[in-house]
Amino acid sequence: MPAFRTEAKWEHFWRMSRPDEPGGGRGVGEGVESLADDAPVLLGLIGRAGELRWCNRQWMEFTGASLRDLSDSGWLQYLNEDDRDRLLDALVGGASFEIDLRVLRHDQRWRWMAVLGAPRPDRTFVVSAVDVTSTREGQRALQLLAAVGDELNASLESDEILHGVAQLLVGELTDMCTIAIRNAEGRLHRVAVVHRDEAHEEELEDLLSGPVDLDDGSALAQSVRTGAFLYRPIVDAPGPDEPFPMPSEAGGLAAPRSLICAPLRARDDVFGAIALVSWSRRFTPDDVDLVHAIAQRCSIAVDNAALYQRSEEALARLSLVASLGEQLAQTFDRQEMVETLVRRVIPLFADAATLAIVDEEEQQLRRLAVAHVDPSVEADFRATIFSEPMQLTAREPPARAVRTRKPVLLESYPARRSRSRNRTGNEPTAALAATSVLAVPLFARDRVFAVLTFVFAGSGRQYSSADIPLALDIARRGALALERARAFDQERQIAETLQHSMLPDALPDVTGITLCARYLPGGAIDVGGDWYDVIPLPGARFGLAIGDVAGHGVRAAAVMGQLRHALRAFASDGNDPVTVLARLNRFVFEQGPLDMATLCYGVLDPMRGRIEIAVAGHVPPLLVQPGRAAVFVEARSAPPIGADVSSRYSSAVVDLEPGATLVFFTDGLVERRGETLDAGLERLIDATRYAPPLLDAACDRLLDRLVGDKHPDDDVALLGVRYVGTARRHLRMRRPARADELAPVRRVLAAWLETAGVEPEDIGSIAVAVSEAATNAIEHAYGPAEGWFEVEADVEEGPVVTVAVRDGGRWRPKARGGGGRGLTLIARLVDDFELRRQAGGTEIWMRRGPRGKNLNI
Amino acid sequence: MNGMTGLVQVVERHDGTVPVCELKGELDASNVEHVLERLTSCVGNEAPGLALDLAATSYLDSAGVRILFELARRLRARRQELRIAVPNSGIVRRVLVLTALGDIVPLDDNVDASIAALRARV
Which residue, among A536, A544, A520, has the nearest Cα to A719 in the 3D structure? Predict the structure, then answer.
């Protein structure tokens, strides 16, 4: 143990110096004293109560005090208060000790001493002390520097870095630390203010907001202004050294304090300073060295961070231009485009931006979009100035950009040579709180048609001529996109007008069938080309057509019109579908090279419930029959019209059951990007399940499920044809007495009632009542052998509906107790109701007028 | 699984502890037995009951009403509650009211209300 060795060493020393008094007890002998005076350590003899009995010359020289000053308890005054008790405790303890403590040297600097104490038999202590300050401080400085290094590496945000450093210094070196740096405009701002006592943090927070006046006489400002390193061991005069609205209990500004202020510099430019203030200890020259080293490291780190930020910003600007083009390409809507344009440049390239278009007739600029980083400024601007046109003769940058056809740059706004006599609160650029402005013209076919104005406001940034290329690039991309939107708008409008003018206004009223058509114009680019038609033919038959011209836009719509008229001409002669398609194909080739078109054409005979269908490159219609799986009509495919002059067509004949529905459609209904056509057709079949009984509602449901709310990419045309299967005023169906016949009967009945002009509300009630009666027939009338049931319905003026549901069995109450409820329900859903038992079977007769009873429920 | 005719579809989900069944399409004598078994099997022993959503039911008559009574009876025997969500207007609501099912089973305007009520039971 070192302590033991030390003790042994001292015992040996004493024995040598006092051979006659081996234990030693009084002073130190003469010869030994001179020896001790020359020893390169502080030596002393101290009693248990802490009184100094003797010390060597080294001790006196070190402290700059006489033996008289030091003797008894005088020497304790030279010990640092915080360390004193530790030493006294060790003396009272009586054992040998080894303590590091601070001693005030003659030059008023605290020095760290390694103090060894060895007890003598008379319980006095021989004490030695060696100055270890340089070792110790060096270590501490190294540790602190390492910690600062870690802090500097922890982030690339200079404010964050500096705050971390300030906190570190307050923990280790000082009571308070302030760091300030210049911003882009050269103004000095505090970025970190840290105080040892967290209670003061809040009042110090305020210091962070405002700029520092470079002439305020503070050490911080002085250091930044002159680049000087300031070291004031003791300041006890009041003064604004930095920054200190000092807490009053510490004595306010007048409290004695110690100060270091180091400039932060990068590449010969002083960009900030670190100020350290301590009330509790005096800074030493070693501290000065340390702060110097730390300031240097901070300078490099902050400079690196700034460089990094600039390169990041350059990258971000590049990607802004790239992504802007992409975003603008995603829409054809002009308003959406200009909004995107002004929003996207914020905050990277501007704090605010406006876009205005040139009204050549009025010689004005009209704003289309504005964006501002501060939503309240934006809102104010919108509410006041936004809709006021700007005269092209105005002195404002946007108007000048239009007149000169060149970018207009105002690095600092309002310009220094302020034209204040004209300045009012209404000036648009001023209303955006602008501090710097850059306006660039947008060209289309060599005319300036709009102007984009970038504004810095609040962030303190300034435009320079270096920003003009990027501004022009943004303007060029915006101009291209807007020009594209304008052309598209024009074409789309024409195409839509053409399209609508060529679709039938109303579908013909056909006895025995229900018709329903839907047309949705395609989204962005794809308007035009789809059509459907219903053509009255000789012999009370009807031609049903649906087609899709290849291509889009005005041309496709025009071709569609030609084809539609040609088809009508060929069809109205009463030709069969194969002949009509063949003639149309020939016609297209006779016209010269025309666009191709897919087409499905069918001839329906409502009297016989039969349809003949031929297709040319088109998906055949879907046949949906009550109670059966939906299937596509099996018509053999042939090339589209206009594809091959020698195309041969063939047809399929389908016999329709009452209630059967054919769904003709164009591929926009079923096609989705990244999906096979088969998957789309599957989805269509799926969507016809659980369809509402009424055709109109069923068509809506189909569109809802397959297209939904989104704008379809392509045109969607849909033609639904339901075969009701009977003359208008009378319906009669006889079906097997099976439960799975109920739904088909309801479908047919509903479709028939619909064509007869009965309101949906009444149809619902009648369908339930009839289905109840039919259920009764199925469940009660027959034994194990299968029978039948019959529904006969009539519509009279009103419309008043009467229905009779008959069976061929005898009425037998069924075991399960549901029958009574069924009859009750019928009674409540119709106006009149009668149960008639007859020899041949049972009949339930009912009648309901419009808005039958119980509607109040 | 749905009825053999593709007439009705039972869509089952859980909202927390509450089982929710949506009945899409038409419910009549051809498929009620199947639907009754299906609905009963949706309700576990720990569930507070069943929220039955008839918003997408386009047809329902006394055959459907009969199984709803039966379902309510089965659940009640297990101390569970049946709640039916059905739009305030339309033929389905009318049928439920006319057959007095509404006197036995609480009718809600929408399924969220049913779920909330069942959750409050827990």
Answer: A544
Which residue in chain B is spatially nearest to A770 when comparing CA positions? Answer: B61
A351 phi-psi bin (left φ>0, alpha ψ -120 to 50, beta other): alpha
Higher pLDDT, A313 or A53: A53
Mutation target for A interface from B8, B28, B70, B99: give the one with most A CBs within 10 A.
B28
Strand pairing of B18-27 and B49-53?
A: parallel
Q: What are the residues whose beta carbons fall under 8 Å from the beta carbon of A670, sequence distance 6 or more?
A: A619, A677, A680, A681, A683, A684, A706
Tokens matching residue A830: 């119709």
> Shortest CB distance from B5 goes to which of A740, A767, A854?
A740
Q: Domains in chain B: how many in total?
A: 1
- Residue A456's contacts (CB-CB under 8 Å, 6 or more residues apart) are A350, A351, A352, A434, A435, A436, A437, A462, A463
Cα angle: A588, vertex A589, A592; to 5 degrees? 95
Q: What residue in A sits closest to B56 (Cα-Cα)?
A: A690
Q: Which of A449, A162, A119, A143 is nearest to A298 (CA)?
A: A162
**A273-294 pLDDT, tens digit each:** 998 888 888 888 878 888 888 8
**Nearest-neighbour CA in chain A from B23: distance (Å):** 10
The residue type at A395:
R
Structure tokens at A536: 């009255």
The answer to whether the Cβ–Cβ distance between B26 and A825 falls below 8 Å is: no
Alpha carbons B96 and B57: distance in angstroms, whole number = 12
* B1 domain residue, yes or no: no
Report the gap between the CA of B6 and the closest CA in chain A (Å).
6
Q: Which residues of B touch A854 (CB under 8 A)?
A: 94, 98
Looking up tokens 């305007």 gives: B109
Q: The whole model's pTM is what?
A: 0.40
Query: Domains in chain A and their CATH numbers?
Result: 2-131 (3.30.450.20), 137-309 (3.30.450.40), 331-446+462-491 (3.30.450.40), 503-723 (3.60.40.10), 730-848 (3.30.565.10)
A26-54 per-position pLDDT tens digit:
445 556 667 778 888 899 999 878 889 98
In chain B, which among 27-86 make CB contacts under 8 A with chain A? 28-31, 56, 58-59, 61-63, 65-66
Number of A/B CB contacts below 8 angstroms equals 90
